[in-house]
Amino acid sequence: MKIEVALFRFDYKSDYLPYYKKYFLKLTEEKTLLDLLNSMYKQEKFEYENSESFIVNINNKYISCKEELSKIIDYFGNELKIEPISIRRCMNDLIINEDDFYAKLSLLEEFLTKEEIEKYETYKIYYYASNSFNFEKDYIGDAIIILANDLIQKQPKNKEAILNTLKACEYGVQYHTDLSTRVFNFDEEIEKTIRKISALLSLEKSEDKQNFKINKKTTLNFKEINSEVIENSFKDFSICYYGNKQKTINYLNKLDSKYISLDTQNIDLAKNSFHINKDFTFKLASSVLLEAFDKGADFLVVDEINNFYLFDFNRKELNKVAGREVNIPVLHINELKALACGEIEVAKNSLKQHYINPEIV
Questions:
Q1: Half-sphere CA count of 130, side-chain side, radius 13 A
Q2: Which Gene3D superfamilies does this chain map to (predicted)?
């Protein structure tokens, strides 16, 4: 099997900007990701850690070098882009400065033994995989939250003290965003653990108990359209989608339009902590609108009512955190289906209630 790899290269002592070195490899005996890095190193030297516990970023997924190469290729295909787990903290090629990771241990220092510190190191992938750092650099990180759970299990008498320590953090658990789409071969128990700590701190509130309509009291009831008949063409439109439902993606691909894929298509918007951390959710949501707008989309499609409210009804707040006006319209999938199958009046009734009317009809 032949694969193409673009490897991130950078030396903070001599390079002003990073670049990518292309490798064209014929795989023979490589079984793991580490084997691949070792084979690449034989062609041309670069900096990495020759260890199965070493972590890299491949095609925007965080991956341990112990992972089977065949599974990685099955998932991504034969074109891989390998980067360090933090470009911002890169020192030399795939090696980064990890001082920030270890600095977080000071939060729980009084409860730690050597064993706990070693355990914390195994959570490094969850620390650097967090999308939260792209929006709040002072976030305590997911690794320390997972470690806090371990400490509570081992030291139940210190439970309240540990929770109070976390609760006192200005950029604490309320800044967590879901890891499941960011880590390759993700263990769902990790997410459950973080959510458990969040619940113990009373930071969680389910979506159905949240109010995502800050500036409007209007409640929209999008008529469910079961028909997937397409009578009207969308060939002159470019469409983006926020969500992770394959059914919606399949439908959008049927339209005679240009479908633009977003890197932010399924990022977590931290809606469960919206009631106490609105600005953080607005920052996350604005990144979706900005990407869709900058990629030339005519509108953004969503398929959940709360996502519609968040993106459309809070446009003033989203523009504020974005630092500019992003007047891209948002359509619910049922409105798009109504337009496509010819139920124009049905679509008109809801479109006129948007903060930004797409003015398609």
A1: 28
A2: 1.10.1060.20, 3.10.20.30, 3.40.50.11810
C-alpha–C-alpha distance, residues 305 and 57, integer Å:
33
Is residue 253 classed as helix, strand or coil in its secondary structure? helix
Q: Which of 194, 140, 147, 193 is nearest to 169 (CA)?
A: 140
DSSP category for residue 133: G
The residues with which 86 forms a beta bridge, in sequence order, are: none
CA distances from 217 to 130, 211, 314 (A): 33, 10, 11
**Containing structural domain, residue 324:** 238-351
By CB neighbour count within 10 A (0-12 exposed, 13-18 middle, 19+ buried), where does 10 fall? buried
Question: Identity (one letter) of the amino acid at 273?
Answer: S
What is the pTM assigned to this prediction? 0.93
pLDDT digits (tens, 9 = 90+) for 32-83: 999 999 999 999 999 999 999 999 999 999 999 999 999 999 999 999 999 9
CATH number of the domain enclosing 78: 3.10.20.30
Number of independent structural domains in the chain: 3
> Do residues 142 and 176 make contact, with C-beta atoms less than 8 angstroms apart?
yes
Say if CB 224 and CB 331 are below 8 A apart.
no
Residue 111 lies in a domain: yes
Q: If you average pLDDT over residues 342-348, what whole number do you get?
A: 88
- Helices and strands, number each (H, E), in the chain: 14, 11
User: CA 302 from chain center: how many Å?
Assistant: 16
| Alpha-helical regions (H) of 203-314 | 246-254, 278-294, 305-308
**Least confident window among 62-76, 172-186, 341-355:** 341-355
3-state secondary structure of 79: strand
| Contact between residue 300 and residue 324 where contact means Cβ atoms under 8 Å apart | no
Q: Are residues 108 and 91 in the same domain?
A: no
Cα 3 from Cα 33, distance rounded (Å): 13
d(CA 93, CA 50) in angstroms, rounded, equals 13
Task: Say yes or no: 184 and 288 in one domain.
Answer: no
pLDDT, tens digit (0-9, with 9 covering 90-100), for 74-126? 999 999 999 999 999 999 999 999 999 999 999 999 999 999 999 999 999 99
**Is 125 buried (19+), middle (13-18) or exposed (0-12) by CB count in 10 A?**
buried
User: Pairing relation of β-strands 2-9 and 79-83?
Assistant: parallel
Residue 361: what pLDDT? 64
